[in-house]
Design goal:
alpha/beta, 4-stranded mixed sheet, two-stranded parallel sheet, about 55% helix, elongated
Length: about 550
């Protein structure tokens, strides 16, 4: 057949009053039959692993069944005009009556993996005489979508289909009335064309309605909550399994709940019970990683909102991990040590997925992001240092005169200061071991990042302690502290820690005291020698008198 429209499609020979009359009548009748039409449902029985040809056959069978039920429900609403009349034109408003499927609907998934909107139109006559105008009120998912208009005759037989690309509509929105070629598949035979009036417009709000209808997402949320409750979803049981996992996935697939929404909604529940543990962080990363791969402009408003909330929560738990990376405990329900413990020398398992999540949320190459991450580890070093120093606060903050302390208390205070030095040394050693594991970004030199903090704090604490409790002399507890301080300085050098201005310098800390001890000892020895000399002189005089005296 030719591609020019038949004479019956000439709008100029049809009076506008008659056109308006038919349009209003059809629209009224179709709207009145909507309640019955909306109850029509078709469930395609298609094997899960079926081939594309079998899927297409199942789709066509489901379409035919839908057409039959549609015809029986609305045959009184279809306007048929005489084929012999010169005024052979059907004007229909399908704003509420068209069967609109998207790519996430099961029927559309049988056709292809692409994104489609499928319109099934019941033609009153063979396709050669059917040229409807369609007033379309719909919302495609995006410019990549295709609008497929499938035309069937009054017996539900497939006549052909036209494919309208949404991108072509968006390129020229002023051209609303167009002719589209009709093809019959699988021969791809040109059988005619159909005229469509399509008004395409977008807004930010409309572009965000891509995750399914409100009813579908609410129903999905309810189902997910039930599944989690039955399977005892909690901090250490974060994954669904078995029939409930299958049911939730099938529900989302059948009712068109987007993959991004399902992952984000699940993430929202996970973040409500999230702990700084390896298993929890791994689940968060596995769910969030695919969503971060989507373009935010392609996500719905609801999905972007949930994503923003989840990212804020993930950021907070990451900060908690980095600022407490030596206090993490996989065996604890909360993921954190309930009681303070010394550094173990091994990195916490949660550090690896935490770094992956941080890379997922941020551009790690940005100097600002690098500085923030370094700041978290420095904050952790300050916390650990302060916790160590708390053991010696009683000797610094008390108003007792150290010189008046009894020997036992004084000895105990020096032993605690020695323990402080050994604890700080172990902290730095643990940072070295973590750095050797290569689990942190290359720009983080953890030992050189934390050592200055530990060294400066330790130096200030030692100075304050020596002022409050000056060493009375080279007693065993005092000498042990001096040796521990010198060993700390030596180890820092052997560990290739960069020189720290204002850090631990054993000579500077104890030089004045050692000099004082030496001077006191010198004076003591001089006094002893003087006394011995006087004694010897008196002893010689007595011997002389006994020998030569009278």
């Amino acid at each position: 057949m030719g591609l020019d429209p038949p004479p019956g499609c000439n709008l100029s020979i049809m009076k506008m009053e008659s056109l308006h009359h038919h349009f209003c009548k059809v629209n009224s009748m179709l709207y009145s039959g909507w309640e019955s039409l909306r109850k029509v449902r078709v469930t395609p029985n298609t094997p899960t692993n079926s081939s594309l040809s079998k899927q297409s056959l199942a789709y066509l069978q489901a379409s035919r069944q839908y057409i039959k039920e549609l015809k029986s429900s609305s045959e009184d609403d279809v306007i048929k005009m005489q084929p012999g009349s010169s005024e052979t034109r059907v004007v229909c408003s399908f704003s509420n009556s068209l069967c609109i499927f998207s790519s996430i609907h099961p029927f559309a998934s049988l056709l292809s993996n692409a994104c489609y909107l499928i319109f099934l139109i019941l033609a009153p006559y063979p396709v050669e005489n059917f040229f409807p105008d369609i007033l379309l009120h719909s919302l495609p998912d995006g410019l990549r979508d295709d609008l497929i208009v499938r035309v069937l005759d009054s017996k539900g037989q497939y006549c052909g289909h036209a494919l309208a690309q949404v991108v072509s509509l968006a390129d020229d929105p002023g051209d609303k009335l167009r002719w589209w070629l009709l093809y019959r598949e699988p021969e791809h035979e040109l059988v005619g064309r159909v005229q469509l009036y399509i008004h395409y417009s977008t807004s930010q709000e409309e572009n965000n309605l891509k995750c399914g209808s409100v009813a579908e997402t609410v129903a999905y949320d309810l189902l997910l909550e039930v599944a989690m409750k039955i399977q005892h979803f909690q901090q250490r049981n974060l994954l669904l399994h078995g029939p409930w996992k299958w049911l939730v996935n099938e529900f989302a697939s059948y009712y068109g709940v987007s993959d991004a929404y399902t992952k984000l909604r699940y993430l929202a529940y996970v973040m409500d019970v999230a702990t700084p543990t390896e298993d929890c962080l791994t689940v968060i990363h596995d769910l969030l990683s695919p969503v971060k791969g989507y373009n935010k402009h392609k996500l719905s408003h609801q999905e972007n909102r949930i994503l923003g909330e989840v990212e804020d929560q993930v950021q907070q738990i990451l900060i908690e991990i980095f600022e407490n990376y030596k206090s993490l405990d996989e065996s604890s329900p909360s993921g954190m040590m309930s009681v303070y413990k010394a550094a173990t020398g091994a990195p916490a398992p949660a550090l690896v997925p935490a770094i992956k999540l941080y890379n997922l949320l941020h551009d790690i190459l940005t100097p600002e992001i690098q500085q923030k991450l370094c700041g978290y580890f420095q904050a952790a070093a300050k916390k650990r240092s302060r916790r160590h120093q708390a053991e010696t606060d009683e000797f610094i903050l008390s108003n007792n005169d150290g010189a008046l302390m009894d020997p036992t208390t004084l000895s105990m205070s020096y032993q605690k200061m020695k323990t402080l030095i050994l604890g700080i040394k172990k902290e730095i050693f643990t940072d070295i071991e973590i750095h050797k594991q290569n689990i942190l970004p290359s720009f983080i030199d953890l030992p050189n990042l934390s050592a200055p903090i530990y060294s400066l704090d330790l130096c200030r604490r030692l100075r304050a302690f020596l002022v409050e409790c000056p060493p009375p002399g080279p007693s065993p507890p005092v000498m042990e502290l001096v040796i521990a301080t010198a060993d700390f300085q030596r180890d820092m050098s052997s560990w290739n820690i960069k020189p720290i201005k204002g850090g631990i310098e054993a000579k500077e800390l104890f030089h004045s005291y050692i000099t004082s001890w030496i001077e006191e000892k010198r004076h003591s020895l001089l006094d002893s020698c003087k006394q011995d000399k006087d004694w010897r002189r008196r002893g010689t005089t007595r011997k002389y008198r006994r020998r030569f005296g009278k």
